[in-house]
Known about the structure:
The protein is mainly beta. Helix content is 12%, strand content 35%.
Amino acid sequence: MRISFAICFIIFFTASCGKDKFSDKPILKFKSVSPGPVVPAGSTLTFTFEYTDAQGDLSDVPVCIEKLSSLSPCFNPGLDPSFLDTTFFRIADNLPPSANQKGELIITLTPIQYAGDKRCNDSQESEDAVFKFWLTDLAGNHSDTLVLEPLTILKQ
């Protein structure tokens, strides 16, 4: 009985201590957001992710960000508070190509970048926003889209 228990424990321990798995498709893993889940007016948002890629071709690739707002759709499409941004946030361009890359990515959004004055209704005291993140490596492999829990962004 003790021997079978010991064998089961060893098998379980060996299986649970597996090495990091790298794939050709880049992987983004959400670590944290600060502040959250309620964002005070005028606060800077900081998102932290971990990334991995087997091919190591993530140097200078853009990180795509989409924000979906509870204030959408807007009657005036020019003031729609949702956005899609692929230009401001890139993985470091000095990242040396190497197999099985792993690192941390920190994305900081200022109030102008995530909210600005694109409001449909000035009487709203807050908005609920869902942020989505994804990336595509230099070989054209797409990561899964990370859909974060909603954040409540307070207006000034």
